[in-house]
């Protein structure tokens, strides 16, 4: 995604050519995963203790993020940081060590899987003689590659500009003062950095205005859907949990579903009819991830409003991932920030995906551990193989339309046009042909379908 010169820190802006550097192919990258033994002052959140992520899980996720935009991690390392340095985060010895690795490997990019201050990023670039991206910058690059719709592009651009705005300080060599004022000498004028920041702010304001237009359009579409009240079911989860695969399994849609982080970005909505005829709107949303930047969540709020407005939320977990508990906690935190209580069993269904990747012993143990008496048990499925999908559909239908009820409907000869509707919206148990040409049907249907049947019969009787 091309960026203008005054705001460009893109991965695709490579350093000048050096002898031996490959002309084409993936960008060679070094991936560094700092593990801080203590949090910097002010970062602790005593009210919300977090599960400790394993260094291996963080390493694998960082490599996956790099590979998601076609980077070639030629060297990866987990580094324990006992005393974070304000200038470079890492100690001078480690910086020198990585500088040698970058030089020998002819790496063009260094990924640091941790938030960096503008000063730290600039100092590391000087010491390592390569472009440096922190976790936030890398996620923004991935989002920039994945955005396909106008809305997605606007949201990524807004988040990227907000990220760049804080990194203008001493980022370039051209920040000399401009001449200003009237007369022969003039005043000190406006610094180049102030001019650049003003240009960025103008762009940010313009993007916010365009996104507000998008939000109003979404509100109109949502209002139209409420006039034809189809329940909305939103699928949320950690990135690569299998949301798009489940969405395709339930709807038959062709949404991109690959085994990579952030395979899809733009939200997709489809109408689907459940086994007993209940129509719902299914929404596939952007994947969540740990340490998702606050300004990125703010930029995607228009998209995430689909989750806030949903009648039912499916929290999809990759139960085969060793880090699944920490991932679930991260999703629940973001849902809480959006005003959705993940512990509300009436509105949120916890679904364990990729159960096919577990052996029988681990599967039984995990399901037994999930039987918490304080909330509904999780639903085990495999979106890839289809295992458990029928159970999930039945539970979704029960949540949005009520329990199945057995009822008997007698149709007069002039009401036989409703027969097809009964078969499509209920589970017909028996049918009896009456002497007057009518029929009597015994069926199982949801409470909402029962009410609809009575409404349709009333119309026929009074038509």
From TrEMBL:
<comment type="similarity">
    <text>Belongs to the TRAFAC class OBG-HflX-like GTPase superfamily. HflX GTPase family.</text>
</comment>
<keyword id="KW-0378">Hydrolase</keyword>
<dbReference type="InterPro" id="IPR030394">
    <property type="entry name" value="G_HFLX_dom"/>
</dbReference>
<keyword id="KW-0547">Nucleotide-binding</keyword>
<keyword id="KW-0342">GTP-binding</keyword>
<dbReference type="InterPro" id="IPR042108">
    <property type="entry name" value="GTPase_HflX_N_sf"/>
</dbReference>
<feature type="domain" description="Hflx-type G">
    <location>
        <begin position="231"/>
        <end position="404"/>
    </location>
</feature>
<dbReference type="Pfam" id="PF13167">
    <property type="entry name" value="GTP-bdg_N"/>
</dbReference>
<keyword id="KW-0460">Magnesium</keyword>
<dbReference type="Pfam" id="PF16360">
    <property type="entry name" value="GTP-bdg_M"/>
</dbReference>
<dbReference type="InterPro" id="IPR025121">
    <property type="entry name" value="GTPase_HflX_N"/>
</dbReference>
<feature type="coiled-coil region">
    <location>
        <begin position="190"/>
        <end position="224"/>
    </location>
</feature>
<feature type="compositionally biased region" description="Basic and acidic residues">
    <location>
        <begin position="1"/>
        <end position="15"/>
    </location>
</feature>
<dbReference type="InterPro" id="IPR045498">
    <property type="entry name" value="HflX_C"/>
</dbReference>
<comment type="subunit">
    <text>Monomer. Associates with the 50S ribosomal subunit.</text>
</comment>
<keyword id="KW-0963">Cytoplasm</keyword>
<dbReference type="Pfam" id="PF19275">
    <property type="entry name" value="HflX_C"/>
</dbReference>
<dbReference type="Pfam" id="PF01926">
    <property type="entry name" value="MMR_HSR1"/>
</dbReference>
<dbReference type="InterPro" id="IPR032305">
    <property type="entry name" value="GTP-bd_M"/>
</dbReference>
<keyword id="KW-0479">Metal-binding</keyword>
<dbReference type="InterPro" id="IPR027417">
    <property type="entry name" value="P-loop_NTPase"/>
</dbReference>
<feature type="compositionally biased region" description="Basic and acidic residues">
    <location>
        <begin position="40"/>
        <end position="56"/>
    </location>
</feature>
<dbReference type="InterPro" id="IPR006073">
    <property type="entry name" value="GTP-bd"/>
</dbReference>
<dbReference type="InterPro" id="IPR016496">
    <property type="entry name" value="GTPase_HflX"/>
</dbReference>
<comment type="function">
    <text>GTPase that associates with the 50S ribosomal subunit and may have a role during protein synthesis or ribosome biogenesis.</text>
</comment>
<protein>
    <recommendedName>
        <fullName>GTPase HflX</fullName>
    </recommendedName>
</protein>
<dbReference type="GO" id="GO:0003925">
    <property type="term" value="F:G protein activity"/>
</dbReference>
<keyword id="KW-0175">Coiled coil</keyword>
<feature type="region of interest" description="Disordered">
    <location>
        <begin position="1"/>
        <end position="56"/>
    </location>
</feature>
């Amino acid at each position: 995604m091309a960026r203008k010169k005054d705001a460009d820190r893109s991965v695709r802006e490579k350093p000048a050519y050096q002898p031996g550097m490959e002309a084409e192919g993936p960008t060679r990258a070094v991936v560094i995963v700092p593990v801080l033994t203590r949090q910097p002052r002010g970062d602790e959140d005593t009210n919300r203790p977090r599960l400790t992520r394993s260094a291996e899980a963080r390493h694998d996720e960082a490599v996956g993020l790099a590979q998601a935009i076609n980077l070639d991690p030629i060297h990866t390392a987990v580094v324990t940081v006992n005393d974070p340095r304000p200038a470079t985060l890492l100690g001078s010895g480690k910086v020198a060590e990585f500088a040698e690795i970058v030089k020998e490997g002819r790496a063009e990019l260094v990924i640091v899987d941790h938030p960096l201050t503008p000063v730290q990023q600039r100092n590391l670039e000087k010491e390592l003689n390569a472009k440096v991206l922190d976790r936030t910058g890398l996620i923004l690059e991935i989002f920039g590659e994945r955005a396909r719709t106008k809305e997605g592009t606007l949201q990524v651009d807004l988040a990227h500009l907000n990220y760049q705005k804080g990194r203008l300080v001493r980022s370039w060599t051209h920040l000399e003062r401009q001449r200003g004022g009237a007369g022969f000498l003039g005043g000190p004028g406006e610094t180049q950095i102030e001019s650049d920041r003003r240009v960025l702010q103008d762009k940010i304001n313009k993007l916010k205005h365009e996104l507000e237009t998008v939000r109003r359009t979404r509100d109109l579409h949502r209002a139209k859907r409420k006039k034809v009240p189809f329940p909305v079911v939103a699928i949320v989860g950690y990135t690569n949990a299998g949301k798009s695969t489940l969405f395709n399994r339930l709807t038959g849609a062709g949404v991109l579903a690959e085994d990579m982080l952030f395979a899809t970005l733009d939200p997709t909505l489809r109408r689907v009819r459940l086994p007993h005829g209940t129509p719902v709107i299914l929404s596939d949303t952007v994947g969540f991830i740990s340490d998702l930047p606050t300004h990125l969540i703010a930029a995607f709020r228009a998209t995430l409003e689909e989750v806030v407005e949903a009648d039912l939320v499916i929290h999809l977990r990759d139960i085969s991932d060793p880090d699944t508990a920490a991932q679930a906690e991260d999703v629940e935190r973001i849902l809480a920030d959006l005003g959705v209580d993940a512990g509300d069993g009436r509105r949120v269904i916890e679904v364990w995906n990729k159960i096919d990747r577990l052996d029988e012993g681990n599967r039984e143990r995990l399901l037994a551990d999930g039987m918490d008496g304080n909330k509904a048990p999780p639903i085990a499925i495999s979106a890839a193989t289809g295992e458990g999908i029928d159970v999930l559909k039945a539970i979704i239908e029960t949540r949005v339309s009520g329990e199945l009820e057995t009822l008997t409907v007698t149709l007069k000869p002039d009401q036989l046009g409703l027969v097809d509707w009964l078969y499509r919206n209920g589970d017909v148990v028996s049918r009896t042909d009456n002497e007057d040409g009518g029929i009597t049907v015994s069926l199982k249907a949801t409470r909402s379908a029962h009410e609809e049947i009575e409404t349709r019969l009333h119309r026929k009787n009074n038509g």
